[in-house]
Amino acid sequence: MSALYPSLEDLKVDQAIQAQAQAAPRMPALPAQETAVSQSSVLYPNLAELENYMGLSLSSQEVQQNLPQILEGAHTAVSGPSPGQVVAPLSGNSLGARRAEIKPGVREIHLCKDERGKTGLRLRAIDKGLFVQLVQANTPASLVGLRFGDQILQIDGCDCAGWSTEKAHRAVKKASAKKIIMVVRDRPLQRTVTMHKDSTGHVGFVIKKGKVVSVVKGSSAARNGLLTNHCVCEVNGQNVIGLKDKEVTEILAMAGNVVTLTVIPTVIYEHMVKKLSPTLLHHTMDHSIPDV
């Protein structure tokens, strides 16, 4: 099992670092940085030749901050990353990637109702499974971290497989106002793609009505496998469903150099938001930035 990388750029930069480290495992220590975690000097590969790699205008300091530190005098053998280890020399400090992470496994949440008896949650049955269709802003559902596309496996101990949308809403309506126990799987129909802005501030794709309609050849979006005919659900973990393209573009512009998109095939998205008006999605969907 090989190491895992958030992006192709992370993989290529790590390979270059490993090659340099094997060729010259003992480099002079760089001057101590203000953000260093220790006063001891540390050893880093010389990353000068990685500047402008893939059009990214890389900062050696930025890469070094994401590398494991090797104390001077330590006799650690030079080796590659461990199998299955996530290696991110470029994306390691990205809050957006952590916010967007689709975690494996299932989790239990405790949901309540507000003073009006509402949870702020709409559900939809798809292929014998039950999924979150809408999470309204500033509601109990948003406060417990439910997101568009999460799969609900159980409600108060009852398996939801095969339930209709109407049966699910009846179960939530009849449940206790103080505590509804749900078992949830994170967004199984969606995936994340981590990309890096080039020197002009672009990652290389075009959206129209929330859908990826083209990908620029040679761009980070193309390198990392972003596909057309997919709808953008999140930018760095922030839900953008229902927002106008101009608003999504503004969020992308402010997103920093590392951008993680959460996308879903358009055919599935259209089925999930069926019977929801664009106005409802735009004005009631929770578009807040989630906590890490």
Could you explain the architecture of this structure?
The protein is of the alpha+beta class and 292 residues long. The chain is 24% helix and 23% strand. It has 9 helices and 14 strands. Strands 9, 10, 11, 12, 13 and 14 form a 6-stranded antiparallel beta sheet that branches. Strands 3-8-6-7 form a 4-stranded antiparallel beta sheet, with no helix packed on it. The longest helix has 16 residues. It is globular. About 8% of the residues have low confidence.
Q: How is this structure best summarized?
A:
This protein has 292 residues and is α+β, with helices and mostly antiparallel strands. It has nine helices and 14 strands.
Overall shape:
globular
Overall mean pLDDT stands at: 86
Radius of gyration from the alpha-carbon trace, in angstroms: 22 Å
H/E series, N to C?
Answer: HEHEHEEEHEEHEEEEHEEHEHH
The class by helix and strand makeup works out as alpha+beta
Strand content: 15-25%
**In terms of quaternary structure, what is this?**
single chain
**Strand tally:** 14
Low-confidence stretches: 33-45, 69-78
Largest beta-sheet characterization? 6 strands, antiparallel
Total helical elements = 9
Share of helix, binned: 10-25%
Q: What is the distance, rounded to the nearest whole angstrom, between the alpha carbons of the first and last residues?
A: 28 Å
